[in-house]
């Protein structure tokens, strides 16, 4: 369908045409006080992470309607395209940031399609074969993409207190006990939005600069297509 | 020349403190005691004050608030420094009423220490104890500390009555002190 460059343009146009924008500092401070209040109420960072994700889910299921209405984009051909649209159009039109996206085809499909697994998705197969098997790989449950956020408007000026950092010595992982994923609401938003377009996904943070990591990364992994939910035409 | 900076919240809670040795002046640069900071010819007249102050240490301890832990040596007269800073707060309040400027220049003098103050719009007090006169440098320093403080205050996890523990803030204030003082 549309090339990445076209998606970028669509995203920018949507951002420019949006008439109601919010002051960035107000947004950051509001989100910050939300997180602090949750921490005071629950007093357990794992629980706060869960609540942020739930809140994000509720936002996501509503946000997708607004997004589809404004962008008028059709159905994505495969999960790879989903990743491109989310990164270049979605994030751009709502938060005015442009995360980079790296695609990972489903591990099961990659081996059966006899393709050298590579995240850059270049292959020496014939173009038609290439496209077909790539599309298949990217459509299989298990396909994923990783969004790398260079800037995060939710986390401007934020420094985590000592208790919110993961315990020292723990390897980097998304289930590190004791750690707070400050922007976890984004994971919920993505999960909710994608579920409304019939994709059940698992969305987690892999790293966060607030925690001392090099980059802020979110991984979106396709669990399955919600086929049975699609309203079938009466034929 | 040494400088002592204190940041105080509107409710007089010490938020941050820093002791800084300037590399710019020509007087002796060794670490803490009062007498080594004074020019040698004036030690004799001040020695009386020095002993009086050291003798008053126990009084100073009880009356002064124990803000941040002492950063650079100077264990004994640290309490004196804090006492001087505290005493100047009354003067700050008096001057606040009269002047609407933020930088209050030098508001108080105690023997060889001059106290300069800077009051922000949110009634945060920055008190700087220093020897000698360096108005422009101190003004620039206060403005930079103010900007750093505002960034810290934007952190949702910061509470106005808690001490600032961020190592980033600390490093930046030290760098700023090195630049201006």
Radius of gyration of chain B, taken over Cα atoms and rounded to an integer in Å: 16 Å
Overall shape of chain B: it is globular
* CATH fold-level label of chain A: Muramoyl-pentapeptide Carboxypeptidase, domain 2
Low-confidence stretches of chain A: 113-123, 170-174
Terminal residue distance of chain B: 9 Å
Radius of gyration of chain A: 19 Å
Q: Could you state the CATH homologous superfamily of chain A?
A: Trafficking protein particle complex subunit 3
Named at the architecture level, the CATH assignment of chain B is 2-Layer Sandwich
How would you spell out the order of helices and strands of chain B?
A: EEHHHHEEEHH
| Count of all domains of chain B | 1
Largest sheet of chain B: 5 strands, antiparallel
**Parts with pLDDT < 50 across at least 5 consecutive residues of chain B:** 25-52, 54-76
Instruction: Give the CATH level 1 class of chain A.
Output: Alpha Beta
Let me know the number of strands of chain B. 5
Euclidean distance between termini CA atoms of chain A = 28 Å
Can you write the helix and strand succession of chain A as a string? HHHHEHHEHEE
Helix amount of chain B, in percent? Answer: 40-55%
The pair of chains with the biggest contact is:
A-B, 14 and 7 residues
Extended strand count of chain A: 4
Global mean pLDDT of chain B: 75
For the biggest β-sheet of chain A, the strand order reads 1-2-4-3
Structure characterization notes:
The complex is a heterodimer of chains A (about 240) and B (about 180). Chain A has helices at about 5-15, 25-40, 45-70, 80-95, 105-110, 125-140, 185-195; strands at about 100-105, 145-150, 200-205, 215-225. With about 240 residues, chain A is α+β, with helices and mostly antiparallel strands. Chain A has a single domain, classed as Muramoyl-pentapeptide Carboxypeptidase, domain 2, CATH 3.30.1380. Chain A has a four-stranded antiparallel sheet, covered by helices on one side. Mean pLDDT of chain A is about 85; it is low at about 115-125 and about 170-175. With about 180 residues, chain B is an alpha+beta fold. Chain B has a single domain (about 1-30, about 80-180), classed as 2-Layer Sandwich (Beta-Lactamase), CATH 3.30.450.70. Chain B has helices spanning about 35, 45-55, 55-65, 80-100, 135-155, 165-180, and strands spanning about 1-10, 15-20, 105-110, 115-120, 125-130. In chain B, strand 4 and strand 5 form a beta hairpin. Mean pLDDT of chain B is about 75; it is low at about 25-50 and about 55-75. Chain A: One of its GO terms (cellular component) is endoplasmic reticulum. Chain A: InterPro entries: Bet3, NO_sig/Golgi_transp_ligand-bd, TRAPP_component. Chain A: It is found in: Endoplasmic reticulum; Golgi apparatus, cis-Golgi network. Chain A: One of its GO terms (biological process) is Golgi vesicle transport.
């Amino acid at each position: 369908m549309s090339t990445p460059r076209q998606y970028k343009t669509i995203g920018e146009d949507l951002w420019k045409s949006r008439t109601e924008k919010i002051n960035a500092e107000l947004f950051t401070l509001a989100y910050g006080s939300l997180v602090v209040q949750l921490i005071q109420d629950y007093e357990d960072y794992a629980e706060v992470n869960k609540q942020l994700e739930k809140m994000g889910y509720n936002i996501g299921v509503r946000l997708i309607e607004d997004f589809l209405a404004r962008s008028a984009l059709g159905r994505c051909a495969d999960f790879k395209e989903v990743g491109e649209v989310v990164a270049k159009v979605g994030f751009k039109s709502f938060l005015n940031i442009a995360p980079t996206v790296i695609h990972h085809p489903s591990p099961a499909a990659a081996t059966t399609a006899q393709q050298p697994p590579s995240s850059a998705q270049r292959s020496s197969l014939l173009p038609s074969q290439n496209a077909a098997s790539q599309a298949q790989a990217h459509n299989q449950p298990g396909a994923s993409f990783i969004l790398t956020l260079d800037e995060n408007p939710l986390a401007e000026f934020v420094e985590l207190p000592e208790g919110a950092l993961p315990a020292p010595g723990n390897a980097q992982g998304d289930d590190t006990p004791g750690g707070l994923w400050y922007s976890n609401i984004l994971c919920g938003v993505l999960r909710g939005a994608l579920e409304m377009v019939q994709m059940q996904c698992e969305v987690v943070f892999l790293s966060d600069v607030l925690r001392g990591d090099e980059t802020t990364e979110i991984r979106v992994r396709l669990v399955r297509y919600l086929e049975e939910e699609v309203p079938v035409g009466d034929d | 020349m040494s400088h002592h900076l204190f940041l105080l919240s509107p409710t007089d809670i010490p938020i941050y403190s820093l002791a800084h040795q300037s590399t710019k002046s020509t007087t002796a640069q060794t670490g803490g005691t009062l007498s080594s900071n004074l020019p040698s010819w004036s030690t004799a007249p001040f020695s009386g004050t020095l002993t009086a102050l050291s003798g008053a240490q126990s009084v100073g301890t009880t009356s002064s608030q124990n803000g941040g832990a002492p950063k650079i040596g100077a264990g004994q007269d640290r309490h004196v420094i804090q006492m001087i800073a505290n005493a100047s707060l009354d003067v700050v309040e008096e001057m606040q009423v009269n002047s609407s400027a933020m930088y209050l220049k030098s508001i108080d003098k105690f023997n060889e220490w001059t106290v300069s103050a800077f009051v922000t719009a949110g009634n945060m007090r920055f008190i700087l104890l220093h020897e000698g006169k360096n108005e422009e440098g101190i003004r620039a320093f206060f403005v930079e500390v103010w900007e750093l403080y505002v960034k810290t205050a934007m952190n949702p996890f910061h509470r106005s009555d808690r001490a600032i523990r961020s190592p980033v803030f600390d490093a930046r204030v030290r760098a700023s002190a090195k630049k201006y003082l």
